[in-house]
Amino acid sequence: MTLSDESKGRVLARLRRLDQSFVRFDFDTFAHAHQKPPAHANNGKDWRTWLILGGRGAGKTRAGAQWVRGVALADPKARIALVGETEHEVRSVMIEGVSGLLAVHRCRERPRWIPTRQRLEWKNGAVAEVFTAENYEGLRGPQFSAAWCDELAKWRQARDRVMAGAFAATLRQRPVRRVPMLFQHDPAEPVGVWLELREDHRGLYARGRLIPEVARGRELLSLLREGAIDGLSIGFRTVRGRIDPKTRVRSLLAVDLWEISIVTFPLLAGARVRAVKAANSPPKPSSLRMRAEQDWRAVMGGAAATPSSPRQTCHHPARRR
Questions:
Q1: Which of 263, 281, 296 is the last residue of a domain?
Q2: Do residues 289 and 295 lie in contact, with contact meaning Cβ atoms separated by under 8 Å?
Q3: Taking burial as the number of CB atoms within 10 A of a residue's CB, which of 10, 36, 232, 262 is the most buried?
Q4: How far is Cα 275 from Cα 244, in angstroms, rounded to an integer?
């Protein structure tokens, strides 16, 4: 049975105080559709990343906290990363906030918050640890089965500035074919190979070829041609950087390039695929050649042989992330 918000309010008002408390924690009953985890990814498989895009009041924090609660209570072995812009944001919003993790649990199932260890512990053995965008490399060591990242768009990591020469060392040390071309940063989705990587005055230039024998590669070629997707993003490890204490902008002086992905939403607006071309495309015929071919078709009654379609490739003048 589906009830309107008004009907739900009337039903809730008639319940006893104890029943109201019970129903208040039954999030599935009162959650909006966008606050519930999707059943599957768009391709019908299990989803790996769930993104909620919404403004203030959209219920993003409540949705995240409820999802983490469900994961922790269902799996005693769960190891969860809680990632926010700063340590204060994680604690005051994601954990202790009005819609945070402590608030969405009933008293008997509420986890123990240990501020000195930056850790939440559930009675069944599940654990959640705090991490921040300011110290994101802390995530490199521990292993996690799930992660909740809150308000990524305001993270300072998005204010990185790649300095000239930052890619020089990694491009010398790593052959171009050792830099994977992925889709949406998914290591299970290689879609092509890079043919050329170099730095120029605008950033990192990348030229590559999609592999048509790969189903996702064929799909991406069609999407790129139609302009439905054109974003680029890099996966990298910071080797050397410097943070301006006033602006908090981080200058990346040296990076280790791991992969380059074709993505739906690039971090930087200028990181785009600039051209999609055909490999080994024949040169444009001269006017004399075109006139001669027209005369030949007239003589042959309109019949003319057409060359086979060339194999497709895409050239990606990528820019800095």
A1: 263
A2: no
A3: 262
A4: 36
Q: Quick one: 92 and 166 in the same domain?
A: no
* Cβ partners under 8 Å of residue 316, min gap 6: 206, 207, 208, 232, 260, 262, 273, 274
Query: pLDDT tens-digit profile of 2-45?
Result: 666 667 666 666 666 555 555 566 777 677 888 888 888 888 88
Cα(203)–Cα(268) distance, integer angstroms: 12
Q: What single-letter DSSP state applies at residue 52?
A: -
Contact 22, 16 (CB under 8 A): no
Helix ranges (DSSP H) in 100-192: 101-104, 168-173
Q: What is the pTM of this model?
A: 0.50
> Distance between CA atoms of 111 and 96, rounded to whole angstroms?
12
Residues 67 and 178 placed together within one structural domain of the fold: no
| Res 155: pLDDT | 72
66 lies in the same domain as 151: yes
Q: Of 4-8, 28-32, 158-162, 208-212, give the lowest mean pLDDT range.
A: 4-8
Contact between 253 and 198 under an 8 Å Cβ cutoff? The reply is: no
Q: What is the mean pLDDT of residues 88-115?
A: 91
Which CATH number belongs to the domain containing residue 59 in this structure? Answer: 3.40.50.300
